[in-house]
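[09:14] KT: can someone run the structure on this one? pasting the chain below
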Amino acid sequence: MEIVSINPWDLKIVERFNAHTDQEANQIIDAVHDEYKSWKKTSFQERAKLLLRVGEILEARKEELAAHITAEMGKPISESIAEVSKCAWVCRFYAEKAETFLKPRMVETDASKSFVTYEPLGVIYAIMPWNFPFWQVLRFAAPTLMAGNTAILKHAPNVTRCALDIEEIFAEAGYPKNAFRTLILDNTQASKVIEHPKVRAVSLTGSEKAGEAVASTAGRVLKPSVLELGGSNAVIVLADADLDAAVDVGFRARFLNSGQSCIAGKRFLIADELHDAYVEKFLAKVATLVFQDPTDSTTKIGPLARVDLAEGIERQVNESIAKGATLKMGGKRDNAKYDATVLTNVKPGMPAFDEELFGPVAPFVRIKDMDEAIKLSNMSSFGLGVTICTGNSEKALERIHEFDEGAVFINELVKSDPRLPFGGIKRSGFGRELSAEGILEFVNAKTVYVK
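[09:31] RB: done, structure tokens below
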């Protein structure tokens, strides 16, 4: 079977790839499992040396690698370069911190000695999306390999070159050939890998639908999984917020990666006192987002990654307008290009409020106060994160426990940081990536008791 990656900017074919057969996939899984037997015995110092080398290669080749990201999924080149650099950061972070995170924990009991030791599980299988084709993989791979596991990647078909780049980088850094491997598979084959007896766990970043399928299969074969799924984050702007700063936060939260981010601000809940002024200033910023060739360093917005994704956003906007939302700007599509769009008078019951908007659309809702903001923010099937813009952060901190979210960011957009755990609740998935919590997802917490 052939897999094709298509440049969403001009719809030209980037590259063609031959998918692995089931037999080839099984041979690779066997080889990665065999490598695990040796890899798990390496020291943290050996692992850290190699992971630091991965970071160095990423930095040295970032412009080349960024060009592949932009070609395959349309991200503006400046953002692609930043993504590769962030991957180097997560490599340095886990190279420095993994041993501390996994240090045996002594526990006082009636034993002569008792403690918990953290040991690798084996082959960990990652199913990753196209929106951050390097970052999503490296934030999984860095802790997984540092913990002593080996890894298999099944990437989104439209970023297959990026997937092969990552495998190549691990090899170039000096990792054993089968410590990290990429499988080029269709979705039917991908599900079979979860069931393979030598695969011990699975990590998915993707859609709700994909999460349901992976969780169902993993549960049926009794394998742990981490699911990082969608989000419909609220950006709450209270009456005491600094207006200009709040507009800047909201603008960056909505339009990073052309709006294609699970943690993007997707519902703008603005206090009545600031609503009209906020929208006016926000529109002025949106007007600067003009489509240009994404390989141009000055480009701020690119196409969506595929035509069907742009068609989906178009449907959500049009249905919301039909239900009473007001189109203030944008709303037009040209193949995979969808204009930066602003909607006002948005209410629950509209797709722009109820559904995840995975693209450059900002829906605005008027609110009276923090109580209404909390009610509307929680009126979502997702629970990934929320941003609160306020002049009184201490007062906002008193209310953080009322939000059904994996993260609360005050006066800043929700973002991922290697030093902090990342993940959500409800239909945003379960488990955590990054920080100490991330590396502990795929280890065996083994109890040792000596009488």
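[09:33] KT: thanks! Residues 233-417 form a domain with the Aldehyde Dehydrogenase; Chain A, domain 2 fold (CATH 3.40.309.10).
[09:34] RB: yep, looked fine to me
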